[in-house]
Each structure stands twice: as structure tokens, then as C-alpha cells.
Amino acid sequence: MDSTSQTSSKSQPIAAVLLSRAFDPEESKRILAEKIQQRPLFLCPSSPPPSDARAARRREREKKRLSRKKALKPKPLSANERRKLRLYEVPGSGQKYALFEPLHQLWLGYIREILGNEIYTGGEGAASKLTSADFHGAEVEVVRSGCVSRVGIRGIVIKDSRFTFEVVTKKNQRKVVPKEGTVFRIEVPLATATVTTTTEEGQGDDQPLPQQQQQTEAEQPKMIFEVHGEQFQFRSADRANKKFRSHFSKIL
């Protein structure tokens, strides 16, 4: 190789020299321009990885996962924030007995369905079902209490918390009655009576009694339950999934 070719090969990059040996001059220039000179080169760090590289990668993945989770799901309110916003408090304008009477009628249908045939017999079967029932909408009356002034309070339960029953009385007053040391009475009227009438075709038809013959609420047969509040010191959601065992109660 003469000196001229050596000088030209030294001035050219090594990639161009290698391509010129394998391709034509025009083809080698095209490959050099399109696939080599305009292609970015990514460099890796030459320093050795840290000793806790696996832990660092795990922390980075956890950080990304938490950031995605926070973006998709808002942070729930804390108990202190819920109290400040008064989310579970009934406003004064809503503390009216007439507003909760439809809820009480719904609760009567619900408790009749829960008790089933035990509503006529009572006993341990009715007690086990009553312990897991929800009392929002039930009309309760305080028959015994460690505080004498609470005896006689009667109203519809608007909030069944862990330690208290919050009721609205017929005088549109809100009363908070603690469950501890209190016995509540619950009256469940039985189903409305029906009378069988005979049509012209001679077929029997069950129809409700006329309004003047229907029994009033006071005259309807009722099943009366007495509930010891100390045995119900659970939230209604937790009480529904809890299994109660029958045992002797020390409360007389």
C-alpha cells in the first residue's frame, strides 16, 4: 500500500474503512450515513453497581407502584376529618320523627323476614337471629337503665354505633342512649290479618280487611323482645358477621 492510500485511510473513521472493504463506495457511504453516524450510542456507567442494587431497584418499583395507586385512588378521610366534616351527624332540620316513620316500616318488614317462623315462638332461634340484625329504623324503648332518667325514652334508631343508640323521639328530640347498663324493648307487630271472601265464581280470594275492621296498631298482636345493650356493643356491620353463643347473663 502506497503512502497516499495510507493517508486517506488514516483520515477516514475505522467504520468507513471496514465498510469500504465489504461494499461498493456509494453503498458504504450510504450505510455509514444512515445506520452509523445518525444512530445514537447509549453508554452504560463504568462504575461497579452498589452493594444494595437489588434493594434500590425494589424501592424504585415500590415508589412507582405507590405513585400509580395514589393517582388512581384518592386518599380516604381519616376519623378526625370525618368528625370535623360531621358526615355522620343528623342535622337539626332532619331530626323529625315523621321523617323516619317510613324507615321504621321498612325495618319491620326486614325483621319479620329475618325472624321467619321464630317471630311466633321466640326462643333461642329468634335470639340468635336478632343479635345479628341491623337496628337502624327499629323503634326501641328503654325499660331498665343504670341512669333512672333514661327509663321511658322511646324513639326510632337513626344511628346504631358501637356503644350507643341514637334515637329520635315523637317529640322530635334526639337522644343518645348508651348501651352499657341499659335494657331496650322492641315490639314487632305480627303480619296484618286477612279475611277470605267468596266471589261469584265460588273461588276463595284473600283480601285485606276493610279499614273499619282492621286492627289498630295498639290492638295488633305483637312479639316483644328485650335486648340487653351490653350484649350489642358492636357495630352493626361487625355484628352481622359475628357468631353469638347462648350463655347465662349476669344482668338481671
TrEMBL record:
Domain of life: Eukaryota
UniProt GO MF annotations: ribonuclease P RNA binding
Positions of region (Disordered): 41-75, 196-218
Gene Ontology BP terms: rRNA processing; tRNA 5'-leader removal
InterPro entries linked to this entry: RNase_P/MRP_Rpp29-subunit, RNase_P/MRP_Rpp29_sf, Rof/RNase_P-like, Rpp29/RNP1
Compositional bias segments (type: Low complexity): 196-215
Subcellular location, principal: nucleus
Signal peptide range in chain numbering: none
Gene Ontology annotations for the cellular component aspect, listed alphabetically: nucleus; ribonuclease MRP complex; ribonuclease P complex
Localization, UniProt: Nucleus
Keywords, in A-Z order: Nucleus, tRNA processing
Compositionally biased tracts (Basic residues): 56-73
The family this protein is said to belong to: Belongs to the eukaryotic/archaeal RNase P protein component 1 family.
Protein name according to UniProt: Ribonuclease P protein subunit
Source species: Pseudoneurospora amorphoporcata
